[in-house]
Amino acid sequence: MKTTVLVMTLGGLLLGAASAAADMHAETMALAEEKQCLSCHARDDDTPRAPGFNSIAAKYAGSEMHDYLVEVVMSGGEEHWGSATMPEAGERPEVSQAEAEQLVDWILSKAME
Fold first, then answer.
1. What residues are paired with 77 via a beta bridge?
2. What's the mean pLDDT in 101-113?
């Protein structure tokens, strides 16, 4: 009886965690659309204008570059990925520190998928 209750409880927790992860993905994807990230970036690497999120995640996985990437998301610029130039902050919607951190965390989580 105790084992059944434990298994059911753990199963419910896993389903809840999966649902929360799906909600966070949808929320962050909407943020990426709102901030026009998807105009140049994509999840895969079929976008010729900028590196795909998977490539960014692979390049920076396990690195200490989180704060650097947050700054890049907030300010844009060039010379952080070959010849790709990210629009400067005034040329695209403003991204707050918290939004940039959410986007970077989401992109870097792709390295674990």
1. 86
2. 85
